[in-house]
């Protein structure tokens, strides 16, 4: 599956390579959530737990990251540990993934870069927390995540809890629709809002189980419709933080970010860290729970495919 030209830069872990060769279910995982999205040591515990959940569901996890200029598809325990502890590594998206490889650098891969690597390796399903999207105030900042363009072009199923609620969810849905990206809410009629089960927006599409999601993906491929599919999986009720409670933390974090002049790639990591602080750690607990929930569904979709 991996093109020869990419092989020179890529290390596919033996377990992942053998699962792919035998057409067994494999789920890709991103690593910006580890390097920039959560503090140590919770990031490492989350990364290990999510891999264990995927194994419990009978699939093979493939965490994707760049380590010393090598594109890793599947990490060893030591590599995961080092990545979780590393400070100052890059946050890699489509624009700079190849830069880290050509310069021998290390970094966490965002949703966009992880989709590229998963597709290169022949992995069709990927679990994350929340995708990047259109930021609030994008009408002046022009801050729209490369994740949206990637979903439009790269044929990977991304299982998320929707777009992070720090974003403008309505505008994010509009861009996804324009780019032809199906947004399927799992088991609900309302679009989730990451930490909360409900946003004010209706679900663009709804499917209630993994088999139906896999069937939809195959049907698009049969028609030759290229591109990804976004699954929005609401956080379990027991773990959610009500949207009105989150709204206060989000607004305060945003105002603080504007005051400190935070822009570009730093916006999302800054807001996540600030909201963690303002919520007294509650946002992190919910973030971990929703990633675990997404990993479970992703493994079931991979098995159905
Ligand atoms: N989901 C989380 N935490 C994160 C991210 C997703 O629960 O930190 C990361 C993803 O890697 C996503 C990135 O691609 O945030 C979006 O960054 P930006 O808004 O700069 O495109
Ligand atoms: Mn951005």
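Sequence proposed for the structure above (305 residues):
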């Amino acid at each position: 599956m991996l093109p020869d030209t990419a092989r020179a830069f890529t290390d596919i872990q033996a377990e992942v390579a053998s699962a792919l060769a035998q057409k067994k279910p494999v789920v890709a995982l991103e690593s910006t959530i580890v390097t920039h999205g959560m503090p140590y040591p919770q990031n490492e515990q989350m990364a290990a737990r999510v891999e264990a959940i995927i194994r419990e569901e009978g699939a093979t996890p493939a965490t994707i990251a760049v380590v010393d200029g090598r594109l890793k598809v599947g990490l060893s325990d030591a590599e995961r540990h080092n990545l979780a502890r590393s400070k100052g590594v890059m946050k890699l998206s489509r624009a700079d993934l190849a830069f880290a490889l050509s310069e021998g650098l290390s970094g966490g891969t965002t949703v966009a870069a992880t989709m590229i690597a998963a597709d290169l390796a022949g992995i069709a399903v990927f679990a994350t927390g929340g995708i990047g999207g259109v930021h609030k105030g994008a009408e002046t900042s022009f801050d729209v995540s490369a994740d949206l363009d990637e979903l439009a072009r790269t044929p990977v199923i991304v299982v998320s809890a929707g777009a992070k609620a720090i974003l403008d969810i309505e505008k994010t849905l509009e861009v996804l629709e324009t780019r032809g990206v199906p947004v399927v809410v799992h088991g609900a009629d309302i679009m989730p809002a990451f930490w909360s089960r409900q946003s004010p927006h209706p679900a663009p599409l709804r499917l209630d189980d993994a088999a139906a999601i896999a069937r939809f993906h195959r049907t698009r491929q049969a028609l030759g419709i290229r591109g990804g599919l976004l699954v929005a999986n609401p956080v379990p009720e027991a773990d959610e933080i009500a949207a009105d409670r989150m709204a206060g933390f989000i607004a305060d974090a945003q105002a603080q970010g504007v005051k400190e002049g935070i822009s570009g790639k730093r916006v999302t990591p800054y807001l996540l860290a600030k909201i963690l602080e303002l919520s007294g750690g509650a946002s992190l607990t919910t973030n971990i729970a929703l990633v675990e929930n997404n990993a479970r569904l992703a493994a079931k979709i991979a098995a159905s495919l």
